[in-house]
Each structure stands twice: as structure tokens, then as C-alpha cells.
Amino acid sequence: MSEATRKPPAPPPGGNARLLPPDGGRDRPLFAVAAILVFLACLAALGARGAWTSSERWMEDLSGSLTVQIRPEDGRDTNADAQEAARLITDLPGISSATARTRGDSEALLEPWFGSAGLPADLPVPLLIDVQLSDPDILPVEDIAATLSDAGIAADIDDHGRWSDAVARAGQLARLLALGLLTLILGAAAAVIAFAARASLAARRDVADALHIVGATDAYIAGLFERRFFSLGLKAGAAGAGFAALIAILVAVGGSNADALYFLPEMIFAPVEIASLLAAPLLAGAISALSARLAVSEELRKRW
Q1: What's the rounded Cα separation, in Å, for the pair 243 and 38?
Q2: Is this structure's pTM higher than 0.70?
Q3: Alpha-carbon distance values, 185 to 36, 37, 78 (Å)
């Protein structure tokens, strides 16, 4: 009887699972490895999404603002110059607001380098003006420079151009690294499942041979392993995704209460992130099923 005309045997009363019963000794280590891989994949996906969101927000903040630095000069009141400069800048077209910062604000920015003891009172410290633009695409740098020059105020203007480029490059690099890591983890998961499926087929060689003798096609036998590993991948995916969600919640809560976590990607549970975590078990099951089917089908073709 040819492979094409051979009819598969009817499933036993207990279903297809009776032909390939669970094996705790082999399934538990594989379940643990698959759950860990799904956990890492979810964290990589959330990290990539967080890097994307953070870089976009930083770009929006930088592109919609300017910073004016008022330089101290002998014989002039730097604080008065800052207040006057803020008033003059506010009156210019294209400016939404201009806020003069105090010496305390400047010292706070310098604190990481000079410590919390503060700077000597007689040390001249430049004052900053935070300028918000009404149209991020229009940078009135020349108008601001000319206005302040006419008023006799010494100032430097930073349009954040170099910082925008650096943030864009850093965000792009973080996204590429996270997506690359995600791809490697998914590839590793597929390889592990394929190896486990081949090992499972070897351990149940007698079952596969008996099914082949009674008329089961290679597709039928491969389907048994496909369904078995789909179930295992689904359960491992749910465990890994659940643990990843727990870690992400802890990072999100900790990041909102402690500045020490500023170096971690931002974790936001928007619909996209929630959908990704919910889809992770299904994706893990699909990868497990496909990897098992391909691996078993290849082994069966070599055998018969």
C-alpha cells in the first residue's frame, strides 16, 4: 500500500494523547527551558518597545524646545538679565513660553559633578532659560540671538540638534539590539524543540514503527508529535509570559518610585504590550508545533 493511499488508524478511545502519553521525566526539563526562553523573549520584546517609546518621547521633548544660557558678566546682574531675556524671548513669534531658571536650578544640574555641598557664593554660574516652541519645525535661533544682542545680554543658544541626533542613534541601537536578541531567543527555542522532538521520536521508536505498520502516514505520526509539543509550548509560554509580566510590573512600579532605575527601559502596559504578552503562549505553541512537525517529518523520511 502506497503512502498516498494508506489510511491512518482511528484514534484510540482516550484520543491521540494515549498514543504519546506525557513523560514527566523528559517533559519537565523541556518545559523549564521553554518557559525560560519565552520569559527572555517577552522581556526582550518589552525592552524593544520601551526603548522605542522612550526615544520617541525624548525626541519630541528635544525637538520642541531650546535652551538659552545667560553668561555672567562683570558689572551685570545675571539674574536680572535672565528675567529680561525670558520676557524678550516670550514676545518673539514662534515662542510658546520662556522660563528663566534660578541659580539653584543650575547648581542642581551641576550636583552630580560637584556634590551636594553647593558652589561658592562668589562663583559666577550661568543661568538657563527653558524655551518652548509653538512649532517644533521652526527654530527662531537667529531671532533670539539678535534680540538678546540688541539688549546687551550675553547668551548662548542650544537648539538641541546634537542631542537629538545622539538620542535618535541610541534609541535605534537599543531597538536593534532588543529585536536581535528576540530573534536569537526564538531561534534557540525552535532548535531546542526540534532536538527534543527528535529525542522523543527516538524514545518512542516502537510506537512509530507500530503505527507505520498498521497504516499510519508520516503526516499522521508527525501530527501526534505536533499536537503534543503544541500543548507543551502553550503551557510553557503561559508560564514564561506570566513571569515576564510580573518582572515588568515590578520594574514599572520601581521605576516610578526610584530614580535609581533610570537606566532600565521604560515599561508601559499599553494595549500593544498587553497583546504581546497574551500572544506569547500562542506563539510559543505555534513555534513548538512547527519545529516538532518539521523535525519528526524529516526523521521519518530518512527512516522509511
Answers
A1: 10
A2: no
A3: 10, 6, 56
